[in-house]
Write a structure and sequence with these properties.
heterodimer, A: about 130 residues, mainly alpha, 3 helical TM bundles of succinate and fumarate reductases, about 80% helix, elongated, B: about 130 residues
Chain lengths: ~130, ~130
């Protein structure tokens, strides 16, 4: 039994992950992050249902600098997960597995996430003021 | 003459998860539904998120918003629970801890979804 010739799984601290691997683990991480974001969604709705004081507290938290940064990160995670999720749906349907295609759709998902996040916040700051 | 059933009957649902492909399909169908729902939600929050108390209640409580919000909450927490379940199954070692975490995630998802839905409905019906 020759054991030193076996293929090794990538050594994560040395191996430079290809874009397809980065987009894959980021999909998972952004999904977990969005699980936390869903707490914020429910908190805002419950505060709005609870009365003016609770709503004012929620708005103050969301409007603070930290609150805005957290919400920008949540929106970026959401748009990334959404764009990359569409990529996954195409894979599930059997399309887009060629290396070149997978690489380009990965770049497209990242670009779409950034652009959609910027658009959402331009709308938010110009129309909604939040 | 004892078997009119096809052999698929004996195999269906007996994969390693014992749930067949139900989880896979539920994850994908909720994903599809969430594409338009979350685009609507983000635009809605971007436009109305800074509204004062009365205006925010009017927006959330309007029939179209209330229905879409309830559907969104259901799909988000269903999809989210399925997704976190897979992560736990992939990374958590030990059947006991895994089972506890799976139950906690499912319980949290149900509680949060119901809290959000109840909030929306109370705003819509409370006027």
């Amino acid at each position: 039994m020759q054991s030193d010739n076996r293929p090794l799984s990538p050594h994560l601290q040395i191996y430079r992950l290809p874009l397809t691997a980065i987009t894959s683990i980021t999909h998972r991480l952004s999904g977990l992050l969005l699980g936390l974001g869903a707490f914020g969604m429910v908190y805002w709705l419950v505060a709005l249902a609870s009365g003016p004081e609770a709503y004012a507290a929620a708005q103050a938290a969301a409007g603070s600098v930290i609150g805005q940064i957290v919400m920008i990160l949540f929106s970026l995670a959401l748009f990334y997960h959404l764009a990359n999720g569409i990529r996954h749906l195409f894979w599930d349907a059997g399309y887009g597995f060629e290396l070149e295609t997978a690489h380009r759709t990965g770049q497209a998902a990242i670009a779409a996430a950034v652009v959609l996040t910027i658009i959402a916040w331009v709308i938010g700051y110009s129309v909604g003021g939040a | 003459m004892s078997e009119f059933r096809t052999p698929i009957k004996d195999a269906r649902g007996l994969g390693s998860s014992h749930f067949g492909v139900g989880h896979w399909w539920a994850q994908r169908t909720t994903a599809l539904a969430l594409i338009p729902l979350l685009l609507w939600f983000v635009i809605g929050i971007a436009v109305h998120g800074g509204a004062d108390y009365a205006a925010a209640r009017e927006w959330v409580g309007s029939p179209v918003t209330a229905v879409l919000m309830v559907v969104t909450l259901g799909a988000v927490f269903y999809h989210g629970a399925l997704g976190v379940q897979v992560v736990i199954e992939d990374y958590v070692d030990g059947e006991g801890l895994k089972l506890v975490l799976l139950l906690l995630v499912r319980a949290a998802a149900i509680l949060l979804a119901l809290a959000g839905i109840f909030a929306v409905l109370s705003i819509a019906f409370g006027g």
